[in-house]
Batch of 4 targets.
Target 1
Amino acid sequence: MVSYHEVRQRWESDPVKFWREAANQIEWINSPKEILDETQAPLYRWYTDGVLNTCANALDRHVASGRGEQIAILYDSPLTGSKRALTYRELLDQVSLFAGGLASLGVHKGDRVLIYMPMVPEAAIAMLACARLGAVHSVVFGGFAAAELAARIDDAEPVVIVSASCGIEPSRIVEYQPIIESAIHLAKHQPTAVVVLQRPQAPAVLGEREVEWHDLLATATGHDPVPVQATDPLYILYTSGTTGKPKGVVRDNGGHAVAMAWSFNNVYGMGPGDVWWAASDVGWVVGHSYIVYAPLICGATAVMYEGKPVGTPDAGAFWRVIEEYQVNGLFVAPTAIRAIRKEDSAGSQLRNYDIKSLRTLFLAGERLDPSTFEWASEQLGIPIVDNWWQTESGWPIASNLRGLDPMPIKSGSPSVIVPGYDVRIFDVQGSEQPAGAEGAIVIKLPMPPGTLPTLWGDNQRFIDSYLSTFPGYYTTGDSGFFDDEKYLYVMGRTDDVINVAGHRLSTGSLEAVVAANEMVAECAVIGVHDEIKGQIPRAFVVLKAGVDVDPKTLRKTIVAAVRDEIGPVAALKEVVIVPALPKTRSGKMLRATMRGIADGREVVIPSTIEDIAVLEAITPLLQGDSTAD
Ligand code: COA
Ligand code: AMP
């Protein structure tokens, strides 16, 4: 193995050569000659003249090279009591057929397809089928409600929606059909067809526009991979921004394929034949990159798990899967480990299983708190690797790279900057901060292949949202600092994005729903500390003059509205009535101050504050003490 410093040095001395060589891991129809196009800076494009097909890289080439009988996807669903294994050959056949089916519904290269599905292999099949056609998929997480779905339909304008009749949560069956119908009703754009995978737990009654998955396959013929430019979009993934309108993060084909291959090998230390399990959901970026694309592009076996870490059936659920499939690498959000620890802090469930196959536990999606890190280290006795990144980057920005010579792991830090990224810490004026000083985490442009080239249909919003605060740099929205060995420490978001159980949410969109309640004069939604979920949203509301309402009734109404309009994933359960919200003398709400207090950071109270007593009254509530009211 080579050392991190050697690889970093190779990248620093000649980034273009570095990424030209990395591109050799991909099978190109036309190999790229132009590696980086800087002519449209600050918009950069990678491998501009390269031509490839991402699906062919994930499937066809492995079958052609003799990997056809290896299992590509292991589906395990304790929620339905079912298991399935699909070899690379079987997966290729199904993807090719489904691509043919989509084509028969009028899906062509460049068209969008919205996928709203639970964690079943058909979700991956639908994604790969789109990639095969050169169509652009947009997967929407099943925990979002109709209005959120409608916003995505109107932005992406899909020709077809691919869905299932239901998703399954431990406490209930979630019927998708009414959600999709209502979303299509709310949306201006109308898809021409909806493909529905019928599930026996709640079959849907199909209407005129709907076609059943297997009926579509019955008349379809297989479809060959369609050549696309490296810069053609592979997918759009909507993520929460500061405002209510979600941002359509675009991922292109070429840079993405290279980044997936490079990161799976070098960051995660995984390769062909390894069994890999990212216990996330295809609706999130982790699901796109590391449930579907990276393991398949690299010829590994990917586990797809439909269940929770606890209660399906117990806190040994994850360890059972690791033993059964001899999993070599596991990737989860820290919240899942906290949930397991809560149920089984002594690790007795863990000791019922033989998990020697597991080389590394990777944790990402939210801050890894030292006590979770320490518990996992003690219980598992393997490296526990924090990695920091975001939907926009698509792959890790900071990590302890397991495909390179081992480096020390430090509790509280996702370790070092991954080659390809040039990360700096800036103060508000844009001056670089010395080791130990906290500031905005920014990335010098150009960012590496696989990172977002733009937002869907909105270059200006991309520039305004990410590239304008510090020209020449991408603003991550996180703050942090380096120690004197260049290990990064990520402290939290500097904007109105919160992270609930590894799910990214915008407090702005929650506030919009809360503020729409006729009894509410004004409100603020802040992420407060939660022992299991890391953060949970808490709404602080000021009632309109003369309104007299039972707090329980108000809470019920607001919680129901948020569930209805954003979805259960928003997880807003706490609504606190306060007499006033802290403001400056000119009436500006002190959100950043409230956020800082909620995050446990040292905050300087602005001298312009109107009434310090108002802030003092809600401080315990911001710090996570829900009983203080
Ligand atoms: N479809 C419909 N509803 C969904 C859903 C989906 N795909 N995913 C979650 N929900 C619902 C849940 O049922 C829950 O509803 P409830 O309020 O009626 O109970 C609500 O959304 C909140 O879900 P969640 O935040 O996941 O809480 P939970 O209590 O169900 O589970 C954990 C808590 C920690 C076990 C769970 O969040 C977990 O395993 N997280 C792993 C993190 C992860 O996958 N992160 C992805 C990025 S890496
Ligand atoms: P998402 O786009 O949903 O992946 O969320 C990205 C955000 O989650 C980041 O900007 C961080 O705020 C947070 N995040 C992800 N991984 C980590 C990590 N390892 N440590 C700290 N925060 C993280």
Target 2
Amino acid sequence: MALLKNDMANKKTHIIALYPGDGIGPEVTAQAVRVLETLETAADFRLEKTTFPWGLKHWEQHGTVVPEDFIDRLRPFDAILLGAVGWPQKVPDHITLAPLVQIRQTFDQYACVRPSRLYPGLNSVLTGKGPQDIDLVVIRENSEGEYVDNGGRMKSGQDDEVAVQTAIHTRRGVERILRFGFQLARTRRNRLTMVTKSNAQRYSYVLWDEVLEQLAPEFPEITTDRQHCDAAVMNFVRNPAQFDVVVASNLFGDLLTDLGGIIGGGLGLAPSTNTNPERVYPSMFEPVHGSAPDIAGQGIANPIAAILSAALMLEHLQQAEAANQIRRAIERTLAAGYKTPDLGGKMTTEEMGSCVIDHL
Ligand code: NAI
Ligand code: MG
């Protein structure tokens, strides 16, 4: 008994905020938590979890989806594991999703990392392409670029109405996201593709070109390549095997990750991060999909995107072996033909969770 206690005390502890959210969010998060708890029993770390029941229920009771001090309450955590939020028939999306934007901005989560990997056992939407062709990661710049709220409108409703919205690209912002990309490429296949549109936008994306050129010599083992976004979308379909790590601005990253999601097997499988690489603030991990009100409560949502998001969280917490264990379990589960309805099967959310646990 004394030994056991001692063992517990020696384990490294990570403190995790769980934000299951709405719709299928809590359903898929529950399975991710089961997987994490199974791993923990044999691992040399433990997770101390606190659940925040924010979202629609909070709205019905208090008139807001999160408490006023929600940012301060999240700040002490090492990481946030999010399910999904939103229920457009009950609360407007701009209200439910506003806290997520605030979390990303306040915690300077400037790297949105979205791996896209077709697991063996799944059919590709791309004819003739299989798992050997599709294993890439898109890193989307998450803090500036085209999505900065910067502009205005004048002469509203008149024939000569004018709307102006100007993107903001800073040298610091471009440099830090490219550096993050180079470092990730080092852990993978040493290839980085930067996606811009510098042939048409000669100020902002030419800055990207220049920063890439300046940084590349610091990473001599990485092969770099530049593509314009229009060519890149074609190549994602025509020859996805050429991509390893792809770094793109906010807008282009947004577009590329929907495409990456579908060639990787669909929304039920696609994980995502909102990373603060310096670890000054908590990073947030979440499936790419939303709260799926159309299937909520039926117990048929695919929990794999949420489970893979938990794996990305472990990787960020420097528990790479545990993260790989999860990925190998999912690989074996899918290769054995286990499928939820979105993949053409009949399993429930919980059965899929159990299946991944059995394959750990
Ligand atoms: P959605 O991703 O929730 O669903 C799109 C379609 O994919 C639906 O038919 C859904 O049933 C299916 N789907 C999604 N995840 C699935 C899973 N794990 N297993 C099986 N099928 C799955 O997108 P939608 O319907 O446009 O948005 C619903 C709500 O989610 C909205 O309120 C939206 O604003 C919100 N949303 C929230 C996000 C977040 O929390 N980060 C991200 C995207 C949307
Ligand atoms: Mg999008």
Target 3
Amino acid sequence: MARDHWFKDAKYGLFIHWGIYSMLGGVYKGEKIPYGAEWIMKNAEIPLQEYRKLAETFNPVDFDAEDIVGKAKKWGMKYIVFTAKHHDGFAMYHSEVSDYNIMNTPFQRDPLKELAEECRKQGIILGIYYSQMQDWEDENGWGNEWDFKPDKEKDFEKYFYNKVKPQVKELLTNYGEVGIMWFDTPYVMPVQLCEELKAYTKSLQPDCLVNGRIGYKLGDYRQMSDNEIPVLSFPGDWETPMTLNDTWGYSRVDHNWKSAADVLYKLVDVVGKGGNLLLNIGPDEKGKVPEGSCKVLDEAGRWLDLNGESIYKCNLNMDFQYEISWGRVTGNDRKMFLHVFKYPEFPYEILITGLKTKIKKVTILDNCEELQFFQSYEPARDEYRFRVLLPKNGKLDKDMVLCAEYEGEIEIQKLE
Ligand code: GLC
């Protein structure tokens, strides 16, 4: 991907998991069903005939695309990925290919269309999630072995040509420009079909990215595992999808929200290692975004308003060889940003070992206060040290960002 590609600059996106599973909210017959609430049909082995009935009363009248897109912007996100069809097989858009879609509910509105229009209006990129192998409604889709035959006896190609490709065509023709086709759980899909699906996507929209879960490293970027951040900086393009509590789909029993400080730490960690964070919300059965998520994301958004320069377009991987105990570092081609998550005790200084680059000036990013700093090289030990003195007795409730302007290029000493 080119260095100035929108995906590389964006850093932070909003994932939206929303479907008829949201009506159950992780609870079936009075029992909390473990794991992702969007997996409830499979994890509780709900018969298709019964699960289908959810659609008959699905009427999420509180869904408001203008509000959600506005929130994403306020939260500092640069793109949105919406679940058009999750593993349960239900299309959350107007599909001519399958009746099992949101137009055949009392709601009779196409949320994807509404989101696409709002994204265009409000200037945010739209991505579409599509589960290409699992489909618990289709007798030949993968995953539903309680209503249909075992997976290995299914005619997967039939499903692929009758449902997947035609639906992908709808998604890439009826909703304007799509920034990412976000595929998921390719499992044992044959490589030729993955290649075909990728080529098909590109033939419909050449600029649309395909994520790593198309399978076989065919994606335009690497998809990290759910909630996983690599330990080391990773040189290619990548993205970590992350939950805000412990589920993707709405759960009425999971209130284990991450704090804003934690979200920001994870975002900074991802950005310093060269990736993007795709953070999830799960609207409820009425289409409302849970208060708990709004609170956290509002707070993180306020921080991003003041400190966004240290996140967006920060495309340098910071390959320091020592773990930085007080925080993380991000950077662009003129500035390095030192994110202090743990305020140092006396003598109130933070240290980076192994930076060869000459620093010109260090300031606190959100108030421009200039700070004293020292750089030294000890030949006998072959050690570069860069120290910054922080204000005495400062304290943090979140990330405090220092901006270090530098000369030339970032050069980090490799340990030998
Ligand atoms: C998964 C899950 C799923 C969720 C997704 C998000 O692999 O199957 O429910 O949509 O990852 O990354």
Target 4
Amino acid sequence: MGGDERSALMECVSDLRLYLHQRYGLPLKARRGVDTPAAQPSDDSPLSTLRAELVDCRRCALCGGRTSVVFGEGPDRAQVMIVGEAPGAEEDIQGKPFVGRSGQLLTKMLEAIGLSRDSVYITNVVKCRPPENRDPKPDEVDTCSPFLREQIRIIQPRLLLALGSHAAQTILQTKEPIMQLRGKSYTYAGVPLIVTLHPAACLYNPNNKKFVWEDIKGIPNLLKND
Ligand code: URA
């Protein structure tokens, strides 16, 4: 079997595994001899096993231009889970979410509400960098978002924070603009969800910071009373 055939087969296997896991609760764990060595989970936790499913992902065209799959970062049992859009250049190089300018602002936003970056789980709708930082395409979001949903299911945060229109629209399955989505209460899979602007929107226009502050200032109380 050629390399292309083998990797196509491995993708089918891992798609099927994810489907069986989501539908019937079968274990996601990679099987020896089927996955590449790089696809082996580093431990047996569900999040590591899910990460291993993506380590060599070729499910959409974004794989062609990426340096790393940016799966997510933070404690497996974080109380707060933050969802952005897609990795940028710096994230692609480091393999970590929100480590560029938007990430620095996100860290400050979190500190303003008494949360350290290390205490939250951070990920994106799309795990690979779109070329030239363009918006992720609908097929890329559709391909990648089952992994986001699975991350949420595994982590079971007490609060979800969606940053920007792609995260909010993907989680809520809507096309409403972000300015209409923000400022309202939601739940996703039983988890309270707050929607706000992406930090990049605040870098682009600092006047947007007031909206973000309005949206996130109640988070400490939500976590206290939950
Ligand atoms: N913007 C995002 O949406 N995610 C990142 O990880 C970095 C920038």
